[in-house]
Amino acid sequence: MCADSSYIFEIAELRVDVVFKGGSPANGIGLIPSFAPFMLTDSNSEPLLTICVDDSVRPVEKTRRELIRDFDTGNGHTSVERISDGGYQFVIRDIQGRPCCLLITDERFRHCRCALNGTYNMRSFGLNNALMLAYAFSSSWHGTLLIHASLVRHAGKGYAFVAKSGTGKSTQVSMWLRHLPDCDLMNDDNPIVRVIDGHAFIYGSPWSGKTPCYRRVKAPLGAITKIERATANSVERLGPTHAFTVLLPACSSMKWDKPVYDNICDTVVKIIATTGIFTLHCLPDKQSAEICAAAITT
Questions:
Q1: Is the separation of the CB atoms in 58 and 89 below 8 Å?
Q2: How confident is the model at residue 14, as a pLDDT?
Q3: CA neighbor of 111 nearest in space, from 78, 92, 87
């Protein structure tokens, strides 16, 4: 029997372990190339979570699980069921509806097992999504949010832009990169925010949507800005209640799991207390970047 292979990663200064059981030729580190910049050779810290990839894992008995919901993720479909012991079972499907991953977790997502299925692309899709789910929810106990945003670093601080898909957050970041000095792209889809000792920081991650930007980088969080299309450029600073309604929907969360949801809401409140939250009403032009930067970086 082939030996297991284990890998250690550090994502937003939290340790994630991935174990491939039995040396299956269909599974291995090649399924998650975007994780390479986050790999460590060793670590003395306790793992945030461990995920064991083992294609012999089978679904939990039907009598021990209850369907919570089946939802469209934008690039596929995922069903989630609550297990009688408090854990979860997820079935992750691709855009064509093919089952790519069966993920079974404990209550706090610290110990996870998954079975992959299909072609290389299906297995890669399934494992990446399983890791993203497990990370988003296990890290909620550590003042951490996985947010749907495009992230640019400017003058040493990170500025995140949130919006519905296709509204223009990546376009606004491209304006900053093109027209403002001292800017670089940190992540274009799923950066991570952490509150540490009362201060908010933002990190690159192994998940970056269509733009391959997988960087192990960190910056103080400068601001979070919602993009809204308009016929003229202007910036509005949001009060706490409005800011909460903007930031919370941008976070990966589970309303049906009270401890996880409460953790996420508490972290959102802490971020709002320390960080400016804005709305940018804008055109996709150079002036919008200049007006936005002048308002949110002061």
A1: no
A2: 98
A3: 87
- Give, for 169, the enclosing helix (H) or strand (E): helix 169-179
Cα separation values, 2 from 6, 25, 268, Å? 13, 10, 45
Q: Residue 281: in which H helix or E strand, if any?
A: strand 276-282
In the chain the first and final C-alpha atoms are separated, in Å, by: 60
Phi/psi zone of residue 226: left (φ > 0), alpha (ψ -120 to 50 degrees), beta? Answer: beta
What is the helix (H) or strand (E) element at residue 203, kind and residue range?
Answer: strand 199-203
Q: What does the pLDDT look like over 111-134, one tens digit per residue? A: 999 999 999 999 999 999 999 999
Q: Mean pLDDT over residues 96-123, rounded?
A: 97
| Alpha carbons 132 and 78: distance in angstroms, whole number | 13
- Predicted local distance difference test score (pLDDT) of residue 75: 87
- What is the rounded radius of gyration, in angstroms, for the C-alpha atoms of the chain? 20
Q: How many CA within 13 A on the CB side of residue 20?
A: 18
Relative to beta strand 157-162, strand 218-229 is: parallel
- Beta bridge partner(s), residue 229: 282
pLDDT, position 168: 82
CA distances from 179 to 71, 87, 127, 172, 290 (A): 39, 48, 37, 11, 8
- Number of residues that make up the chain: 298
Q: Which amino acid type is present at position 206?
A: P
Confidence bin at 257 (pLDDT 50/70/90): very high
- Confidence (pTM): 0.95
The average pLDDT across 277-283 equals: 95
Percent of the chain with pLDDT strictly greater than 90: 90
Residues 6+ apart with CB under 8 A from 149: 160, 161, 162, 169, 187, 189, 190, 191, 224, 250
pLDDT at 24 over 90: no
Strands 199-203 and 192-196, sheet pairing: antiparallel
* Residue located via tokens 């993920």: 103
